[in-house]
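Exam prep: given the inputs below (a chain plus 2-acetamido-2-deoxy-beta-D-glucopyranose), describe the expected output before reading on.
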Amino acid sequence: MKAFLVLFGLIATVQLSLAVFGEFKHGDKNSKYFKKEPPLRATKPVAAVDAVYEGWIKQRMDNFDPQNTESFYMRYLFNFENFQPDGPIFIFVGGEWTVSPGMIQFGHMYDMAQALNGLLIYTEHRYYGETRPTANLTLDELRYLNIDQALADLAHFIVTIKQTFPGAENSGVILVGCSYSGTMVTWFMQKYPHLIKGAWALSGPLLAQVDFVEYQEVVSRAIHQVGGENCSNTIRNAFEQMETLAEQGNATELQRLFKLCKPLDLNNDLDVWSLFGDVASTWSGLVQYYYRHDRDIENACEGLELHKTNTTTDLEAYAQWIMNRWRINTCYDHTYESFLESWSGTSWDDWIAQSEWRQWYYQTCAEYGWYQSSGSEEILFGSNFPVNISVQICSDLYNGFFTPTSIQGNTDRTNIIYGAKNPSVRNVYSTHGEHDPWAPMGLDANENEDSPVVYLPGESHCSDLGSIGVRDTPEMVASKTRIFELVQKWLGIPPEQQKTLPPVA
Ligand SMILES: *[C@@H]1O[C@H](CO)[C@@H](O)[C@H](O)[C@H]1NC(C)=O
Ligand SMILES: *[C@@H]1O[C@H](CO)[C@@H](O)[C@H](O)[C@H]1NC(C)=O
Ligand SMILES: *[C@@H]1O[C@H](CO)[C@@H](O)[C@H](O)[C@H]1NC(C)=O
Ligand SMILES: *[C@@H]1O[C@H](CO)[C@@H](O)[C@H](O)[C@H]1NC(C)=O
Ligand SMILES: *[C@@H]1O[C@H](CO)[C@@H](O)[C@H](O)[C@H]1NC(C)=O
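Solution:
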């Protein structure tokens, strides 16, 4: 298995074909990491898949340059089975992933649309999925990939749909987005308030920041709180012991423990950072997508504890546990060089484009940073994966174009244009999960009366997409009820005509 990444995506990264893992070598086709949509849990599809249609709309390549006449087609999905003329339009805004029908077949947005006879739409973000504006993904061709363009695409889309979809001319538009698309809906309201009535932003980060030290702080806190003190102690001890071995120059012991394919060169910072980052980042996924009923953190902690019965040190237990988790039978390739090689493609057919990492990583270098480093003392994972490695990846993946200074300048630009945690919006309902490592970058105080911010205890990233369910916490039910009330208020539905939604089993 190749070194994977020191950056955990905003949305889930899934490992394909785990079952056929066996031989690990760099570039192994089985060790692909794909981005996928945010999780829509708990309920089964309400609408049939053939209720969902695909459409394509012509967009300008550059929305801000009238002299550029190039264009491309943007994909969207729609479901009008419940739509009545003048009913509202609910748009789930696609982020850095490929759209699929599920998002407009069920879930809380679906339920709201169904109750209000709304039209359901799911838009695909330029450069993701099948929406491919350019011939390839070389640095030069990536110039039209940014949120400013994506929001302008959405604006043009909304105006066009209202003009052309029968019965939609007078429809009010509600946007829903989660994760990066939660960011998008908030900023859409800021830039194009005349086009929508309101927005629901789930787990959207708003503050661009290069060194995102808070991420692993939340991860560490969640492990401690949910997995227990023994678990967090084991992890902390393991990383301390790992750092001690590195300080003592004991590369052979680290090589043995982590079944490294190649000797560990302790003088090569990038290799060391890559190793420590990989070994830590397993917990990112567990916490970011934690769901009480699946008990993933608890199970991982119990698994780790089991290994302690056979081993003498916490590091040995941790190493055994992680080799097991990654299903490493032969060896694990930790080197930065192999990582770079496997991430180096620029064609749409390369896995790094299909996994959408090339596009998303570019956006982090050009707009947000958000590198989940070991820069805080309040984490369980030591201090051996500083932000430097992520910044180096920006330089190495895109022809040396990005530098630490330019990346800082790019995040500053984003914060200046969109206002970071002061977006000055109306009618945006923002939700965050208590254990969501992205929450520290999100809105943390009510913007105004009609733009409240709600923290959901015990939940993580994008965990409130599903229907109101019988297994939801009271806080979750209250939040989903509130957004439905707000949506109806924003649409101008008089109080006596407003509806409520019952829980779904
Ligand atoms: C990428 O596409 C551009 C525009 O079509 C083309 O000029 C360039 O040669 C391509 N580069 C690669 C590496 O395919
Ligand atoms: C925590 O570890 C201590 C010492 O090894 C042990 O006695 C205790 O049972 C453990 N607690 C849990 C909840 O596993
Ligand atoms: C490396 O660490 C192992 C385990 O602690 C120890 O047995 C070995 O002697 C160490 N080797 C060196 C060269 O320090
Ligand atoms: C502990 O060692 C025994 C005997 O070698 C083995 O059967 C068992 O699977 C090991 N447990 C773990 C958690 O590795
Ligand atoms: C990280 O990079 C900065 C410059 O961008 C440098 O000052 C610092 O020493 C580097 N840190 C490490 C641990 O190499």
